[in-house]
Each structure stands twice: as structure tokens, then as C-alpha cells.
């Protein structure tokens, strides 16, 4: 059934998106085939011209590696070896298709569940986007083992969307989107253009095996959409093989399935920050407090006057003026000992003092929530 069966609908407003492209759109005889990737690369470039940011989660390393050595079989160790062989080819493949500099980022589940590694990965991706590059992300198959593997790149894409605070998750498929039944087996199957909630019944109906080259069918895509939706991120499923569908995306028109977000992305994150246990406290001066409360600013080291507790990078800390109740909470970008060394100093001095630099802020504004009456100003900052 053609993707044209899906009526056009507007894409949700977005500034930063994660685009997932699977092996079924990239693998050909003897390695990687640019037939469908060209259109997706043009979409990425068009988004960049409009001031938008795209993070690409791309499969294809195993197919690229297999094309180099012609190895048969599908065991885990062999796939790990083929992924190692194919990673360089995969990055070169995308670099040839896009005008942006391409950066490779390999992740494992352990990187995303460990708070410090999580912050390190997010800081790196944020800097790569600031530099105008296209981050290309894949699972670190060469070192991941069964209990650490994220399982598939659909779910990896959902995790990355949350990691980079994306507004939208785009999943390119080899069919038009979600249908009421399997479109190749049931002639009565009808396109499902909008999904309010992903239910267990819907997941069960979407179950089934993947193609020979792919690692996940529609069920894993809906699982990923559910995870993204829980983080306040909408998901769209579209046919990456249909040039007209991909071209329409650049004009914010979707011919496919839109899975709505469940709640507000920032509100969900800030709600967690309000209730997570704090490991320490930062005392700040009046100027820093005013900037945080009224201007939506990050907490810079120059505004910190004292440090309480022995927290690590990535821990939740309270923020207060000396002698007063905390008015904010956030994730510390530096450990307690490091903050003590850079307190009252300019952000430009961080690397000179510490010998390294995670960023200019002690608590970034994206990782900060105001408390009490001050929380009312967050909507306007």
C-alpha cells in the first residue's frame, strides 16, 4: 500500500529533531546504497538552512562491514566485528550526502543510565549542534554485550531524543506508516494517521518480525514512540522510500502517522528535578539569583559564593541565597570540589583552573527548575 494513502497533516512545531534511519533504507548489495538516503540528507540540509538542528540515528554499520569482507552469518560476535568494520564507511557515506560536517557518536545503555556519562554525552551533542555539525549516532556494537545493548536503533533514537531535549522524533520506515492491519497481508488495512495513546492492544497488533536486513518491525517503532511520548516528545512515522513524502517533510507536511506526546516535555523534566533527592547546596549572590529568577539564565561560577555537601557531576543540588530557603534546584555540571575551585571566577577561567571544561555554567538553564512562588516566572523566562 502506497504512502500516498496517508492524507497530509502539519508537522508539530520543532526546532530540534532526531531522525532515525534503519538498515532497510540503507543496505544494498555489496554495502550501503544511497538511493533513499539522498532524499533524507536533503531534508537534513534543508532543515539546517532554516536554522533547525537534526541528530541522525543511523543503522547500516553491519551492512557496510559485511559489504567490505563479504562475511556470511548473523551471530552477535560477528555482528560486533562487522559493525567495527563498517562504522567508518557509514560515516563517510553520510558525509558524502550532506553539506554539514558529520560527527560520529557511539553510545551504549550504560552511557545513558549513568548520570555523569549521560551529562557528558549530552554536553558533547549540544556542542556538536552548536558547531553546526550533523551528529550521527549508533549503538556501540563493538563493545556492547547483551545486558548492556539498547536492543535496537528505534529505542536508541527515543533515548537520544530525550537526551538532547528534541522537539520531535522522526522515524523513517519502508512503508507509509502505521496501518490498522498488515498492509501486505490484509487488503482491508487502512492507514492510521494519528495516535493519541499507545495501548498494549496496539502494540500487540503491531507485533511481528522484521525484514532480513532490519532489526525491528513496527512494534519497536511504537515502543520507541511510547518512550518519546512519555518524555513529552511527539513521534512521526513516514516512508523513507517515497521521495515526495520526504520532500513534504521539509515543508512541514507529514504523509504518515503522528504519535502525540503525552504532556509537556520541559514540564515533565522539571517535575522530576523538583522531587529528586538533592546531594548538596550552592549559595549564590543576589545578582545570580535575580538572573535565574527573572532572566531564565544559567548559573555561572561567578555567582556562586559557597558550596555545601560533597556532590558529584550530575547530582541534583539546591540553589539558595545564604540564610534563605532554596529557590531553585538543578543538575550540577561540576563536582562540589570543582565548584569550590571555580566559585566567584569568570567562566573563561574554568579550563585554566581545572585543566578541563564541561561548559561555562555550574548549572545549565535546561537542567534547572525554580521553586515556590518563583516557579511562576518560568513560563516567561
Automatic annotation (TrEMBL):
Sequence positions that bind substrate: 59, 141, 153
Record-listed E.C. numbers: 2.7.2.11
Pathway: Amino-acid biosynthesis; L-proline biosynthesis; L-glutamate 5-semialdehyde from L-glutamate: step 1/2
Record's subcellular location: Cytoplasm
Gene: proB
Gene3D superfamilies: Acetylglutamate kinase-like, PUA domain
Taxonomic source organism: Lysobacter panacisoli
Keyword tags: Amino-acid biosynthesis, ATP-binding, Cytoplasm, Kinase, Nucleotide-binding, Proline biosynthesis, Transferase
Pfam family, one: AA_kinase
Annotated PUA domain residues: 280-363
Amino-acid positions noted as binding ATP in the UniProt annotation, renumbered to this chain: 20, 173-174, 215-221
Keyword Amino-acid biosynthesis: yes
Coiled-coil region: none
Functional description taken from the UniProt entry: Catalyzes the transfer of a phosphate group to glutamate to form L-glutamate 5-phosphate.
EC top class named in words: transferase
Assigned protein family: Belongs to the glutamate 5-kinase family.
Protein name as it appears in the record: Glutamate 5-kinase
Catalysed reaction equations from the record: L-glutamate + ATP = L-glutamyl 5-phosphate + ADP
Principal localisation: cytoplasm
InterPro entries attached to this UniProt entry: AceGlu_kinase-like_sf, Asp/Glu/Uridylate_kinase, Glu/AcGlu_kinase, Glu_5kinase, Glu_5kinase/COase_Synthase, Glutamate_5-kinase_CS, PUA, PUA-like_sf
